[in-house]
Fold:
Amino acid sequence: MNSLQSCDELHNAFTRKLMNLLDIDDDSLANVTPLATLPATDRYVALQQRQRTNEILMQKVEMIRERLTRKEELLRDYEKDLGKLRQAEILLREKDILLQDLETDKRTKDDEALYLRNTLKETQDSLNQEKRVNSSVKLGR
Structure:
């Protein structure tokens, strides 16, 4: 086997493998005439065909690379947003605990204010009762 045949086989194997990986089913790209069997005058045309095939494959690879880059950017943005969401959830839990503490304090203060109002009313009632007793004692003398 000469080097031209080896290059043909290597090129064809590489092209077929790359087409399989890229899910390309175009037989016209894979069916290339071996350079070793062509006369020197037709080799230029065959090389141009191979160049077009390579360009098509490279365009497909570039398109996939660009899609991958966009997906990676989306993933980075998603991860940033997920981090912000987690921070917001932590802050929400902290604020919820603070709110519960404030509600407990308010209930305690409301209960205390109610107790003080009731005690004040009882004290006023008791004072008024004593005033009436004192008035009746003064009148009864």
Summary: The chain has one domain: 3-140. Residues 120 and 126 are 10 Å apart (CA to CA). The helical segments are 3-21, 27-30, 40-140. Residues 3-140 form one domain.
